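Mods, move this if it's the wrong board.
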Amino acid sequence: MTNVLTPLAVMLIHQELGQDDLVAAPCFNYYPIKDDGKPGDPLEPKKLHVKLVQLLAIAALATTNSDERASLEQIIPYVKTKIPAN
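Not the wrong board. Structure tokens:
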């Protein structure tokens, strides 16, 4: 996936939109899966960050690899500092 997404993301961030020095950017919305198995609406920024923290904590508990767990546990406080106030 990275081999495909990274070049596309790089291409997008260099694509000028022609107004106010804006450039395109890849979409990184999280679409939670509803009970019927279909994707729901993307989360608002604050809810997105909170959900990301929850998913990182679940992933850290689920792994048996101590290096992976340590990495995931280091990411959690960083993401928490980025949660929007509103």
